[in-house]
Predict the structure.
Amino acid sequence: MKENDLIIIGAGASGLMAALSANENGIMPIILEKNNRIGKKILVTGNGRCNYTNVLLTKNDYNKPDFVEKVLSKFGPQETVDYFESLGIVPKIENDGKTYPMSEQASSFLDVFLYELNKRNIKIELNQAVMNITKNKDVFAINTVEGKKYFAKRVIFCVGGSSMPLTGSNGSGYEIVERLGHNITHIFPALVKLKLESPYLKQLSGVKINSQVDLMLDNEVIQSENGDILFTNYGISGPTILELSRKANELINLNKKPALKVILIQNVSKSKVIERFENAGEKEIGQGLIGLLNKRFINVLIKEAEIEKVNLLVNEIPKKNIYKLIDLLYDWRFVIKGSLGFEESQVTAGGINLDDVDNLTLESKIIKGLYFAGEILDIDGRCGGYNLQWAWSSGYVAGKRASKSDEND
Ligand SMILES: Cc1cc2nc3c(=O)[nH]c(=O)nc-3n(C[C@H](O)[C@H](O)[C@H](O)COP(=O)(O)OP(=O)(O)OC[C@H]3O[C@@H](n4cnc5c(N)ncnc54)[C@H](O)[C@@H]3O)c2cc1C
């Protein structure tokens, strides 16, 4: 059987970009995808709006800045915006750099990819879950669960990580590349909601505030974020929390006990709050808190400050409990129990060890002719367009390099 020039495994963001970029070098790749459709995960990104890049991105928005730098310099946010604009996607750039399609529909990306793949006659084999790859002499043999066998001179392997397996990326890629001699670093969920230890979660579930949250280890601030948080019946979510979750899970993996410090009151000094209580001696304590913070916190905070009843007058409450209550407004700690796991995580931390991969070409240092792109690599970024950008950038570079003729290498 004649081998194909290039087979791309995985029709996610990185694989689709790799296919177009390779094709622009005159190659007709074949894409193998285990789902019955392409780009399933793209559809759920950015709450269905697809935050496809961040124009304020720097290499430091990733876990391995030095590795991503060269790839991003070849195809970064500006090139991405221009590239997709040439395919029809008009960018809508927000103040924080987050960029969406003007249509505000993630499905626009799928429509554009499908149109381009069709126009260029690029073949997609759906319902083909790759289970093994071997290389004999210069030819790769690829076996699928469905019993098909494909041959290729070069392969781009971009099957994603373990996050949100319902979209197809179920971690099946790690074993396949391990069998080819690559090392996989410890993988864990990142950009994920956190589970907290607290007796108050039921009462607080549904309360949303805009606040500062610090990730703490003992009394040291490890990371600090500002923005919306939402209490839930298992713990806490919101963009701020997703940002803190990677570091939190990293600490939990090291058997440490990180906590969140929630700062309920911002821009009002503690002395002003103390004065407020000094002037409210005849008020019930519950009433004394009205207007200062979300009402749903009041009963919980009073309990946490060990004040017996919400209808006690401020004057009737021992000073130490009033001070405890005030301290809680500025420093309320919750022990982090863990996270909701891969099912709910937006990205996988860890992956193919970068020591095994050339950072200029994304070719394996172990198996010549095998390239990687996207989340399968040990690269993850912050929340806000950075992970899709890595998928586009690495897909573009891998596609270009894997479609170069040997003479030009
Ligand atoms: C809910 C959610 C929201 C997100 N929102 C954003 C956002 O707004 N902005 C942002 O930058 N990032 C976002 N991300 C992250 C981003 O979507 C991913 O980092 C990115 O899609 C990874 O691209 P990828 O090509 O590496 O992998 P994937 O997109 O996961 O694609 C991998 C493909 O490979 C296929 N595959 C898997 N195993 C096999 C196999 N054995 N054989 C054949 N095919 C296989 C899968 O079916 C899948 O189609 C979000 C993620 C989630 C889960």
